[in-house]
Amino acid sequence: MMGANEKCDVYSFGVVALAVVMGKHTGELITSLPTLSADYPVPTNGGDSRIPPPSSQLEKQVKLVLILSRACLNSNPCERPTMQQVSNLLMKDLL
């Protein structure tokens, strides 16, 4: 059994980031992880016409978080990014 380490932390980050972006409970996400792909559609207004669609910049940022989340959730811990790599990409592309 593997103890807690950075690869577990980055996996947890991926779960939380995906839950926030998708607006779903983590339990719902875990069951659908095998079907998520890198081209998963960016969540829109959730059917509420009062909410404007995301700007192209916001859509780009959300896609980045989705891609990073998917990488963090890689079933092989050795292939997951480090938190430093995730942080660097987020800082570079989101700020």
UniProtKB/TrEMBL annotation:
<keyword id="KW-0723">Serine/threonine-protein kinase</keyword>
<dbReference type="GO" id="GO:0004674">
    <property type="term" value="F:protein serine/threonine kinase activity"/>
</dbReference>
<keyword id="KW-0547">Nucleotide-binding</keyword>
<protein>
    <recommendedName>
        <fullName>non-specific serine/threonine protein kinase</fullName>
        <ecNumber>2.7.11.1</ecNumber>
    </recommendedName>
</protein>
<dbReference type="InterPro" id="IPR011009">
    <property type="entry name" value="Kinase-like_dom_sf"/>
</dbReference>
<keyword id="KW-0418">Kinase</keyword>
<dbReference type="InterPro" id="IPR051420">
    <property type="entry name" value="Ser_Thr_Kinases_DiverseReg"/>
</dbReference>
<keyword id="KW-0067">ATP-binding</keyword>
<keyword id="KW-0808">Transferase</keyword>
<dbReference type="GO" id="GO:0005524">
    <property type="term" value="F:ATP binding"/>
</dbReference>
